[in-house]
UniProtKB/TrEMBL annotation:
Organism whose genome encodes this protein: Mesorhizobium retamae
Pfam families, per the entry: PNPOx_N
Protein name as it appears in the record: Pyridoxamine 5'-phosphate oxidase family protein
Domain Pyridoxamine 5'-phosphate oxidase N-terminal residues, every copy: 39-158
SUPFAM superfamilies: FMN-binding split barrel
Record-linked NCBIfam families: PPOX_FMN_DR2398 (TIGR04025)
InterPro entries found in the cross-reference section: Pyridox_Oxase_FMN-dep (IPR024029), Pyridox_Oxase_N (IPR011576), Split_barrel_FMN-bd (IPR012349)
Gene3D superfamilies assigned to the protein according to its UniProt record, in alphabetical order: Electron Transport, Fmn-binding Protein, Chain A
Length: 216
């Protein structure tokens, strides 16, 4: 929906109008930003098997990409530096190309069972140092490169979003079979070509086999 679909008086266009909708933030929220990774932030990262990385290209086009691995997969090189291994994917390289154009990144670390999250902002560099790559090997396979982040801001994010969403509550888990498979969704929204059930089942099985073969 375009902004023009709304009356001008209902569109926020400046910070003063925006802040006028909300009460002033409290002192603790203002003070929680840190410039380095303290002991608690480091422990959170060591526990995390999953993060999302936000990037932008030079034109401001944004992208958010999930990254996951065994617990502690992100290496803490020092209190100002993180290294994230780049594992095999679809080779679109959206995040990596964005980093070459605009090194500013945002990271959101998630720990299963934790309702609070850790946010880290910084500047990223793509690194292929063999010693670092070998230290990030899984199943005998080293990544081709790592995203090394020079940390500029660190802060814990409160639990409200996860508690509102009931993300970890099994009573709120949804049945994946109620939607088509990943490949079926892609086909429906691109070619639209009809595929019979047997062929679709074979394609889905091939994807599962690929997952097993190409995680690392």
């Amino acid at each position: 929906m375009k902004d023009s679909a709304f009356k001008p008086e209902f569109i926020i266009t400046d910070e003063t109008s925006l802040r006028g909708l909300f009460e002033a933030t409290h002192a603790l929220a203002k003070q929680k930003f840190q410039k380095t990774l303290g002991p608690h932030a480091q422990e959170f990262i060591r526990r995390s098997p999953f993060l999302c990385i936000g990037t932008q290209d030079l034109d401001g086009k944004a992208d958010v990409s999930p990254r996951g691995d065994p617990v502690g997969f992100v290496k803490i090189l020092d209190e100002r530096t993180l290294a994230i291994p780049d594992r095999p994917g679809n080779n679109r390289l959206d995040s990596l190309v964005n980093i070459l154009a605009n090194p500013n990144v945002g990271l959101l670390f998630i720990v299963p069972g934790f309702d609070d999250t850790l946010r880290v902002n910084g500047r990223a560099t793509l690194v292929t140092d063999p010693e670092l790559m070998n230290s990030m090997s899984v199943n005998g396979r080293a990544p081709k490169l790592a995203i090394v982040v020079e940390v500029t801001e660190v802060f814990m994010h409160c639990a409200k979003a996860f508690r509102r969403s009931h993300l970890w509550n099994p009573d709120h888990f949804q049945n994946r079979t109620e939607m088509p498979s990943l490949i079926k969704i892609i086909l429906d929204e691109t070619t639209g070509a009809p595929i019979d059930n047997d062929e679709m089942r074979k394609i889905d099985e091939d994807l599962e086999d690929e997952y097993k073969r190409t995680l690392y």
